[in-house]
Specification:
globular; about 270 residues; Rossmann fold; single chain; Adenine-specific Methyltransferase, domain 2; 7-stranded mixed sheet
Length: about 270
Amino acid sequence: MTSKTINPPLKWPGGKRTVMGFINQHFPEGRRLIEPFVGGGSVFLNAGFDRNLLNDVNPDLINFYRQLVAGGAGFVEMARELFSKNSEGEYYDIREKFRARDSAPDIQAAYFLYLNRHCFNGLVRYNQAGAFNVGYGKYKAPHFPEAEMLALIQMAGLRELAFVCGDFDSVIEEAGDGDVVFCDPPYEPMPDKNGFTAYSGATFSFADQERLTRLLIAATERGARVMITNSGAPKILELYHNNGFTQRRLSARRSISCSDSGRETVSDVLAII
């Protein structure tokens, strides 16, 4: 495991950067890390595995990782040029170019980074047509994550990072002896609250939570170890209890909100089997 926390290049809903110390305390030993929901990447960046199979259903996210690793410092410099544009008009111009999806993959990836750092609260949200639809964030000086990108590029030169795009089932079905599967799926909403479960344009239902759990149990039967985070929703706690997971309380502050005063510390769950 790494000793100093490595920050991810992207803002991401539900990112695990602030709780990695607790998560690392419970990581099982293994030869390969499999993440079916890689998201912002805080886990693989800080878990210290030499081999990493990293999946997400969001093709823009996976394209960003692939282009960053392939392009190296050249990609960083290309992205830096975009960050000189920070007016509302320039933001929406870049958003329209991104939505047109007719640019080269590396340019699309740079647009994605720009939008992530300049949009409102770093939200990653798409409408029903699959178009990124988050508005301008009005930040005076959005952070350019040069050090974060260079750290990931350096890691890719030292470790195996395989980025794939698809549903969670395919990579979980690959898991076997020596693998550790870490899942950070869209969280089940708490009762009487609306959850943000549509990061890539499709919602994540409780039926998906159940299907995910069945796949994880099957992976343990092939010799894999499993960790999963989720909300403390009663249905989730019951689902994990009934399937033999050991549960640990995971305290976290929600990172996506209108203001710091609107954020709250919540009791999530880290379940292990």
